[in-house]
Every structure is written in C-alpha cells, then in structure tokens.
Structure of ATP-binding cassette domain-containing protein:
Amino acid sequence: MEIIKVEHLKKDFIIYEKEPGLKGVIKSFYNAKKIIKKAVDDVSFTINQGEIIGYIGPNGAGKSTTIKMLTGILTPTSGEVKVDSVIPYQKRTLNAKKIGVVFGQRTQLWWDLPLIESFTVLKEIYEISDIDYKERLSYFSNLFGLDEFIKQPVRQLSLGQRMKADIVASLLHNPKILFLDEPTIGLDVIAKENIRKTLKDIHDKYQTTIILTTHDLADIEELCDRIMMIDQGKIIYDGSLETIKAKFGSKKIVCFTLKADSMMDLTVFDRLKKKDPDLIASIEDSKLTVVFNKLKIKVGDIITPVLAQTDVLDIDISDDHLENIIKAIYKNGF
Ligand SMILES: Nc1ncnc2c1ncn2[C@@H]1O[C@H](COP(=O)(O)OP(=O)(O)OP(=O)(O)O)[C@@H](O)[C@H]1O
C-alpha cells in the first residue's frame, strides 16, 4: 500500500551572492547577484508501507531538503507531496503524529531533563495511552538497554546512548513512517551494529516505513531493500542494491605488496588490456594495485606475470567496495 507519493517536486532557494570584502558588502546591499539554487529539481517517487529506503547522495545533493518537505518543515516551490494522504506543509500537526524524525546531529530531547522525563513529556504531547506507553517503553528498554541511563540527564549521555534515546523518542507514538538522518554518524562499530539490528527488530514488529539518509553504506547494505540516489537535485537511481551490484560489481582488485625498491614494468598488463580495456594498474609506495573486470580476466592471469617479474611479499584480493561503485555512479551516472 502506497504511503508516500511525491510528484514533480521542486524546491528552489534564492541565494544572494556578494563580492568578498567590505566593498562587496556595500555593493551587494544595492545590487546583490541573485542566484536560484535548484536544491530539489523535479523529483517523483512513491514509497509503500513497510519499505526501508536508503536515500543517498553526495553532500549538497538535496536529501535534507526532500526530507524537510516530507516532514512539513519546508513548503515546496512546486509539485506535489503526500504523506499518508496528508499534504505535510498544510497539516504539520497531523503529519507530526504520523511520522517520527531523528536527526543524527541534533537531539529532540530536553537537554537538562532526565531521559525518562523527556519520554513522559512526549507521552503527553502525543496523547499516548498508559497501556501503549508502558508496552512500548518496556519493549525499547529491552532492545536498547535503556535502564542503564534512563534516569540521567540527556546532556550526560554518550553519543551512542543519545542516539538510542532519540530513536526511542521518535517511536513512542508508533508512527507509520520514520525518517532517520545519519542515525549512526560518529558511533563506534559495535554501537552502529546495535542500532542497525534494533532498527530491523522494530521494523519487523511494527512494519514501520523507514527512510534513511546516510553516508555510511554499511547502513544501506544491512537495512535497505531499495536505494534512491539523488545528485544535484535529481534522482539518478531508484532500485535495489542487487541491481547496482550486478551492473557495476564485476570489478576485482588485486593488491600486491612488493619488496622495497623492487622493479615492476607495468607494460606486462598491455596484453590483458586488450581483453579488458578498463584494466588499471598503478604503483604507489611499493604497493601494486590492479583493478579489472573479473568477467573478462582471471585472477591467475594477473598474478602470474607479476610473480614472474618481481619479489612479492603479500597479495590481497578483494571485490570492489560498494563505496567505490557508488562514487563511480555519482561521477558517471547509472
Ligand atoms: N535554506 C537554504 N538556503 C539556501 N540554500 C540552501 C538552503 N538549504 C539548502 N540549500 C542548498 O540546497 C542544496 C541541497 O542541500 P541539502 O541540505 O538538501 O543537501 P544534502 O543532500 O542533505 O547534503 P548533506 O549530505 O551535505 O547533508 C545545497 O546546495 C545547499 O547549499
């Protein structure tokens, strides 16, 4: 069932550019150069109830601007946006009851109050019944181990504890949709894993629709069925991670650690370049890296000529990292 519908959504920001220095300030006072920034530029998509979507893109691509329009914080320049049949910027309060929002960099909790007090305030704001509140709080306490820090003021919590607390706060009213902006930013590996696992549990229990913006691709790999990729305000990919991997994931990387000062003639790869013109071989600090298409060339064909020519201390063979694949899509398109 469709829960979010966005059609030809646009958001322009008007920026006034000034020249540097005091002269520039005075000049811009009279005739500043007006620039229109198309932060979101004709974006359309639909999201079904229960989907977990990874909304990714480079810095400044338009992710936050889209989320702000979905949460009702910003009014679109044009186009349509509906969240569970409501136009968010027209009915902000009603929309707020249907959604939960977590911004990794900020907190929605009251800094000086013990955490439990923040939850009590939210219970009143969202008019959550005693039974529901008790049931949810005990469920989240078990998942996140809240008892350890629930009586502490929020300002004393560690970043990981604060993130858990914010996620609980956003879910107490059992929203249909959860917007998560960088939920694992700044956390250590174990805390990240804990957050991801818990989000999966919550999704399984409540079938919450989750829209996640992140620069951490492990979040995407572990959580998302679908990726929407935005760049310069336009959606450049909307589909599964499997499709991306099938199309771009055929690269393999072999990295040789060479004995210091050993010689290596890269022309040995010329013959292989006829089979795979995109093969790249490079040397830096006694490390020889060869990137090639595993569907066109066998790993053995790379290793044999290198071993015949030079002293190798170590060999590391890996598939191309998702990060490189995504970077290449940002650069060259899908
Ligand atoms: N209030 C604003 N006034 C003017 N320009 C803005 C405003 N908000 C965002 N922009 C511009 O719109 C573009 C999109 O910004 P947005 O914050 O949506 O990007 P993002 O994809 O969330 O980036 P990041 O990954 O860095 O958070 C950027 O060029 C940004 O500078």
User: Anything to note?
Assistant: The pocket of adenosine-5'-triphosphate is lined by residues 13, 15, 37, 39, 57, 59-65 (CB under 6 Å). The chain is about 40% helix and 30% strand. The chain has two domains: 2-239, 250-332. The radius of gyration is 25 Å.
